[in-house]
Amino acid sequence: MPSFDAVSGMVDAGLNQGSIDDRKMLLETALSTMSSLPKGSVADTLNRKTITLLYRDLPHPPATFISNKYRWRQPDGSHNNPAYPELGKAGTPYARSVQGTTPMPIAELPDAGLIFDSLLKREHFVPHPSGNSAMMFGFATLVIHSCFRTNHEDWTVNDTSSYVDLSPLYGNSLETQLKLRRQDGTGKMWNDVFAEDRLLFLPPISCALLVLFCRNHNYIAEKLLQINEKNRFSNPPPTDQKAMMDQDDEIFNVARLVNCAHFAGIVFTDYLAAILGLSRDANPWSMDPFSEIRNADHTIVERGTGNANSVEFNLLYRWHATLSEPDVSWLERTFTSSFGNKPAEQITINDFKKVTERLKAMSNKDVRHWTFAGLERDADGKFKDDDLSKICMDATLHPAGAFKARGTPHVMRTVEIMTIAMARRWGVCTLNEFRKSLGLRPYTTFQEWNPNPEIWVPAQALYEQVDRLELYPGLQAEDTKPPGPGAGLCPGYTVSRAILADAIALTRGDRFYTTDFSPSVYTSWGYMDCQRNPANPGAGSMLGPLLLRTLPEHYPSNSVYTWFSMLTPDVMQTNLTRLGKAKHYTFERPVPLSVVKPIDAAPSVLDITGRGGRGYRSTYGIKAREIFDNGGCVHV
């Protein structure tokens, strides 16, 4: 008969898998019992199970190593998985996610221009059904450009890393990265710089957001130097060149880790909330793909093992249908200045190559002189807060376009034709093959794919059989989800399912968001700085705190422009009114605070403070009252 202690230990193990009370000595009791058993099948079985259990306690191979080579993100994304250092590295080939088995000779496929004109070309603007704003898709552009940059000479190669690592800000090589850095021992970047030249050709919200992340990096670097947690830094920096650069490397790379964690945090708060429709209910729930997960058999669900982006998802993330009306107008003006007055249907791939070369020549200039949307830098190289906040608030105010067949602006015609040609060169699977890979039921008719006869009839004429429907037009022209519980993005059904799988792969596969996300790597301050607060006014928003930190005079702490910027203000007013929470927010476009005028002459100070306080208004009075709940005492 087993002892009482043994029974107690077994009960505890059954009730608390993953959190066993080792003081109950269950393992020791089991080993003692095994040692007394005669040789035979029972003893062998218990031995195998015990060895298996103990072996599974630890990850194999080790998840990480102690070295600066592995401690920080490499500029090109390599060594994210130490066992496979090339996995996800910039300049390596795209992966293929799905085996295609349907013969699709290019000569038998319909003309790409005809596909665009029949299935994709926007007839008129339709606002996003959930009220998602242009801000959401400006941020989505940063996520997409972090993961995909097809080499112009070799379309099989991805010139950026396969991680959500803010490479549009930091670049994909050490050479590019050094152009962005001051290299003065502070770990800071030059003011308001970024690496991604492609964004100069796109609507300005994405560039404006990158500037805010640059400012956030410099704020983080400054704090790391001030706090000097491990007493490793000198302030001011050392005069010895090597010591100064060693200090600069450490501060810069830790600041990058923290800044990237802010970026990933926004992906899984504001961005995911808009995708799942959580924002409209101010619901603070969020998925957690980062934590350790153990199965019932004690095996660990993989994390931090790396990632490689695939050609299928390169096609899936082309969301031109969501362009807002002002962004389309901006693109039309940009195309006119780049291609003359050439109609969209006459712009050729060679025309695009020429423009790309001009853009490349422009981007070779000092990044400190780059500009966008006609903005001007001041003597310190900074853009005006007024200009940046205007771009950001305009993007929040303007509704994005709806995902839909015949929703892509005509100005994107040549880009779409190039995409179809690229997909054919890659030899990607069909839409139905992609659906099968996700565990989704394949379509049996075109009408099932999109019940609108204006779409399925021409699609059937183009492809004849639904099993031959190409992946890209199949994704873009598929019937879309209506808004509802769990549905806020409202793309085609296949896209809606696939992006969740990819989001988990991108983040759970990243070592720096999983096994190396710790105070020892990020520092204690840095680790806490990028934590989410589910109780904040944005239901856990992490974009709101970024706006408050980088544009404090323009974003109030109670505005929907601050806390729910990925939905339009009028939609959020309706949502918050329904929830009975509208009284806690303002919905008007924020007005910047008055410019602070420093007074450094004694007569002026006496004049202002000598009017019984009537000439002086405290800049912290409102916030102090909130902290002290209208009580307490503040000395000025």
From TrEMBL:
Q: Which CDD domains match?
A: linoleate_diol_synthase_like
Q: Which UniProt keywords apply?
A: Dioxygenase, Heme, Iron, Metal-binding, Oxidoreductase
Q: Which GO terms describe its molecular function?
A: dioxygenase activity; heme binding; metal ion binding; peroxidase activity
Q: Tell me the Pfam families matching this sequence.
A: An_peroxidase (PF03098)
Its taxonomic path starts at: Eukaryota, Fungi, Dikarya, Basidiomycota, Agaricomycotina
Q: What is this protein called?
A: Heme peroxidase
Residues bound to heme b are H320
Cross-referenced InterPro entries: Haem_peroxidase_animal, Haem_peroxidase_sf, Haem_peroxidase_sf_animal, Oxylipin_biosynth_metab, Ppo-like_N
Q: Which organism is it from?
A: Serendipita vermifera MAFF 305830
